[in-house]
Structures are given as structure tokens and as C-alpha cells.
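Risk register update: the risk of archive-format incompatibility is retired. Evidence:
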Amino acid sequence: MDQHLDLFLNYLIVEKGLSSNTIEAYSRDTARYLDSLSKNGVAAVQEARPVHVVAFIGTLQEMGVGPRSRARALSAVKMFHRFLMVEGYSESDPTSIIDAPKIVAKLPSVLTGREVEMLLAAPDGQDSADLRDRAMLELLYATGLRVSELVSLKLRDVNLAAGYLLTMGKGNKERLVPIGETARKAVDEYISACHMNDQQFLFISRLGKRMTRQAFWNILKKRAREAGLMKTISPHTLRHSFATHLLENGADLRSVQIMLGHADLSTTQIYTHVTRERLKRLHQEHHPRG
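Archived output:
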């Protein structure tokens, strides 16, 4: 069964072009599934039946794995069995009659406009750390990039004169994202004062190396504390705020989808729920008969 797993992972890399994080998750989920089959006396993956798939998902639930992670695991198993059929390794798909569980979408946490201003104003000095952190925060809020996209930016990917940057998103899909004037100014100040000619990546750690996701996460938490924000903030909070504030100010859903790099419009539609909930809350708080 390990041979089939290796072939499947190679298919995900070469044919599907999935991100390394997605491939790692699918690898882990599929390996768990194969281990479950083995423990249930299934000698070959071709012998798997729907009852074995259901038993695997049930085991994950007993282990305390959340509904979203269980849905992802089932998605991996479904893709694995479809791959085996398409490639001729199996004649049946035991997952074909198993539907993915419905997951209630959790509304993302967003910052208010005032909270964003407080956060962006936290690195207010002129030393290299302040200039870099201000540029990263301004750019993240101005573009809605994922943190992985932010730290992967190379100097050549950013065209400040044109006001655009080029980023590689999920599935190795490139997209152009506009940069606002405030973010352009912050990035320009950082590059002019701090960047060395031999550095390939845009954002560099204090050790002169490429910024990591974890390092940026720590910087964000530090700046949030300095700003006096009591909310729990992650890099994705700024991405959520970017999308929500665009929609609140009249941007159309399709344009926001393109800027976020969502393959499916339904993924972007979660932000329409956020804006509706916020409007409802504001109405209740401020209307005399709310």
C-alpha cells in the first residue's frame, strides 16, 4: 500500500500542482487511512469497502479530530481512490457513496478600521526594524496576501512605480495584486534605507536571512501588543480585514476574489456574511429601536 501512496503523492505534485502544505496534509491523512485499513485486516487497498472508510472517519472523531480536519481527511481519501481508479490500480471506489459532512462556516475575525490604524501605527520609528515591520503590515493589509506569499516575495516581484506586485498563490498560480499608495511609500522607504543589493527576498530578518512565517507571526503579536489591541490577531486577520473592508466600501465580489487568489467564488462569499453580520450588529447597537 505504501507504493500506491508514493504514486499518489507524486500525482499530487506533478499533475495537480498542489502547495507543499496541502500535499503534506494529504500525505498524513492518506497514510493514516492506510494504517487504519491495515489494522482492520485489509491486506490491499483494492479490497477497501465503504464500511472501512466510515470506520476511519469514526476513528478520527474518537481521537478528537475536529470536523474541518475530518472533512479534509475524507477529501484526501476520496482523491486517493479516484486516482487509483483512473490509473487502473483499482476497479471500484469505496468513497463514491460517502458524502462529505456539511461544515458550518465560521465567520473570520476581522479588525475595525480604527484597530487597523492602531496596528499599522505601532512601528512608528525610523530604525530598520520599524521600517521593515511597517512595510510588511502596510503591504499585507493593502494586498490581502497570505503570510506565505508575503514572506516569499522577492525584490523583483514588486513594481512600486506601476503599483503592482506579482505573487505565487495556492496551486502555483500567479496573480497580479495592486498596491495602494500608503503601502508603496512604506515599502519604498524600507527598501531605500535597509535593503542590500545582494538580497533576493524583499523582507529580511535581523540576521540577514529570508523572513519566515513564524518570525512574522511573532512580529505581528508584538506590534499588536504595542498597539494596545486586546484581540487575538493572526496574519490571516489582516487578510480577512482587507477583504471585508473592500466589500464594505463598495468593491464587487469578483474583484475581491481575484485579489485574494480564490479559485472558487464561494470561498470569497464568506466575507459577504461578515459584512451583513457587522451591519446587523451596528444597527442593533445604534438604532433607537434596535
